[in-house]
Design a protein that fits this description.
Order of helices and strands: EHEHEHEHEEEHEHEEHEEEHEEHEHH
Strand order of the largest sheet: 3-2-1-4-5-9-14
Shape: globular
Distance between the termini: 38 Å
Helix content: 25-40%
Strand content: 15-25%
Radius of gyration: 20 Å
Number of strands: 16
């Protein structure tokens, strides 16, 4: 089997490449090494057929697909973005790039795909209200300004957050989220049209060695880790009570291998979404405290907020466990202890 990993030089892509090589797969990597993520980095790995090119370039993608059995599509512009001026790049990189890849796969007869999606497709997570499961409206600026961060029911009472499953309504609430959902829709359309099989992995908050150090699109774990490396206390938005599911990058890589195996046996035209999370809820404040404690620092809770952020989003990963036999192997405590001193990717200047 020949596995093509798009974005295979990136944070998650590299972990998938390592895991695939460890179990004896033949791996090819396609990556643009975009400078806002990789800086001036080059890529070289023993045993890897590396193609340096843009996913939006049909000729490059056709070359990358030669002899490929399955594609693990990780290439994307990630994060919330700086402001709405990022929208064209998000749509071009994520959605146009995915469309070029899928069209080339259809032409080449490659019928197995694992695509990296995200928890952000759900918008706000699942909540319990007076009448059962409730999807809250977008939080109001006046509530956020007043420090009322939790979504409220119609009577003004806080809703109770709970785990969200894959069958929950999808409600992307920022540009990045919209592009990730569009990637899922494109992949689903491709599977129906070609008889290909697709596993869409909805990553929750991924962290671990090799995270980007200082880009505007880095995840919160990376931002906190970079702060303590500078000798600064992590700065926590809102009140730190935002609930998340932090999953280690090695567990995300093993979930991808499980999904790869599923696509090989799935019925033609199958599309299946899977949450990828640890199954354990922690808050942003918990994360900041765990990382800061390793350096003898105390996080600073700022009360600041970003309008595109959601309050609570935590995964039920039972479908992935029950159907694919996957289970996380890294606990939050062990992962944070490792992450506090693990190397990050070099700063982008």
């Amino acid at each position: 089997m020949t596995l093509l990993v798009t974005g295979g030089a990136g944070f998650i892509g590299s972990a998938i490449v390592d895991a695939a090589l460890a179990r004896g797969e033949h791996v090819r990597v396609l990556d643009s090494l975009r400078p806002d993520v990789h800086g001036d980095a080059t890529y070289a790995r023993d045993g890897i057929n590396f193609i340096h090119g843009d996913l939006r370039d049909t000729e490059v993608v056709q070359k990358a697909l030669e002899g490929v059995t399955i594609v693990c599509h990780q290439a994307a512009k990630v994060g919330l973005g700086v402001d709405f001026s990022d929208a064209p790049d998000y749509v071009s990189s994520n959605d146009h790039g995915t469309a070029v890849l899928l069209a080339a796969m259809a032409a080449a007869g490659v019928k197995r795909l694992v695509v990296a999606s995200s928890m952000v497709v759900y918008g706000e997570g699942a909540y319990l209200g007076p009448n059962g499961i409730t999807r809250p409206a977008v939080r109001k600026t006046e509530d956020l300004d007043a420090g009322r961060f939790d979504p409220l029911d119609e009577d003004g009472n806080p809703l109770v957050p709970t785990l969200i499953g894959e069958d929950a309504p999808l409600d992307p609430r920022n540009v990045y989220a919209a592009t990730k959902l569009a990637q899922e829709h494109l992949a689903s359309s491709w599977s129906r049209s070609t008889g290909g099989t697709v596993a869409a992995l909805r990553y929750h908050n991924v962290y671990g060695p090799g995270m980007p150090q200082n880009t505007p699109y880095a995840g919160v774990a990376s931002l906190f880790r970079s702060a303590i490396e500078r000798g600064e206390a992590p700065r926590v938005y809102e009140d730190g009570g935002q609930r998340r599911d932090f999953v280690h990058v090695r567990d995300v890589a093993s979930a991808n291998l499980a999904a790869i195996d599923w696509t090989l046996d799935a019925a033609p035209g199958a599309f299946r979404a899977y949450n990828v999370g640890s199954g354990t809820v922690h808050t942003i404040g918990d994360l900041a405290a765990a990382i800061a404690a390793t350096a003898g620092l105390t996080p600073v809770t700022t009360g600041e907020y970003r309008l595109g952020d959601v309050r609570h989003i935590t995964a039920s990963s039972s479908r992935l466990k029950d159907e694919l036999g996957w289970a996380p192997s890294v606990t939050f405590e062990d992962g944070m202890q490792e992450f506090a001193t693990a190397p990050l990717r070099a700063a982008v200047t």
